Amino acid sequence: MSWLIIKSYSLSLVQPVFWVVVLIVYLQYRRIASMEIEILGSVQYPIRERVLDSIFFGLLGGLVGSFIMVFLGITMDQFGLAYVWPLAILLMLINPRYLCFSYAGGIVSLISLIFGYPEINVAGLMALVGVLHLMESLLIWLDGHRDRIPIFIERKDGSVVGGFNLQRFWPIPILMLVLYTGPVLNGGTVPTPDWWPLIRMPGVTESSVFIILNGIAALGYGDIVLTETPEKRSKSSALRLLGFSIILIVLSLFAANSTIMKYVAALFAPIGHESLILYGRYIEDKGKPLYVPPDKGMRVLEVKKDGPADRMGLRPGDVILNINGREVNSESNVKDVMYEMPAYIWVDVIDTDGVRKTYKYSDYKNGIQQLGILFVPKNTSPGFIVSEAPSILERLYKNIRDRWGRH
Questions:
Q1: CATH of 298-375 given 1.20.58.410, 3.30.300.30, 2.30.42.10, 1.25.40.10
Q2: pLDDT tens digits for range 69-103
Q3: Residue limits of the PDZ domain (predicted)?
């Protein structure tokens, strides 16, 4: 069975749809790169490197998800996703974050349960949503903190704080089981245990035959981090999402033989997912922001890749107290030290855990012209402040209102 899964999974790489999704991922990273150039003056990671990393982690996550789908016997039908995709796109017009199968899948399942149409395998659809989010949690844990974009954002109290916009995208091939109703097959089948599949569609018997189909999806992770480092935030987000996905998969298993549990799973998918988002926002709104100006020294918001600060080991959130023994309390103080182009520097720092450290760096051949640091501004307003992007419908409404207002 394992070899059959791997062999079937490898066929995903020759599907044109997979490479269309890769192209979409590339376009997203190109947009991120243009933002980095505007903010940092350079690109942290080449677009090609980002896309290759996303393909690697996407294939890894998809393979794990495919094993779960097949070994648990999560069975789909050919109609469920046909209703979910259009609704997901429609919900995206209300808010971009609603482009998620948790919302569309839950709504479609509830409509099917209440009205009897469309006829779909609710348990199978909810299990698929759970497995997709399980894969997403794995990818966020391994890869979610990368491609961070430093930002400044205005909080509800009017204060402006620094932070990061985390954005990662992955092309995901995934194997799905579909009940085969065609001509009798002679050979080429793999026997399965009596308990399999765990989630059965109506009409499935011990003699039923299933085929494995390749599906292609895209997963994305977006988050705003103000109160902790990107690494810590991605880990905590991944753990919460993992808990959500496990609960949804377990509910789906019970829903295979219980109408009441079908309702429970269909309700939990959108409500549970929305609760995760609201809880994350609550943490950011109520938590103590990390990237604010300190009373003494200058706080690091971001370091440029392979720059002197990065090579020394400086990280976001660190507070620089002294450079070569000279106190720094403004960017102009830092520029005064670097104006001399020293060949050797030592930097006294307090890290995010409150530990005082000293970092050293030397360049005797060329001298050190800059540290490669984006600081949290002190006593000045940042040059850029971001806010949550409005939905397509909100932008359309604003354009119509502005046009009518001019007449």
A1: 2.30.42.10
A2: 888 777 766 557 778 878 887 887 777 677 778 99
A3: 297-330
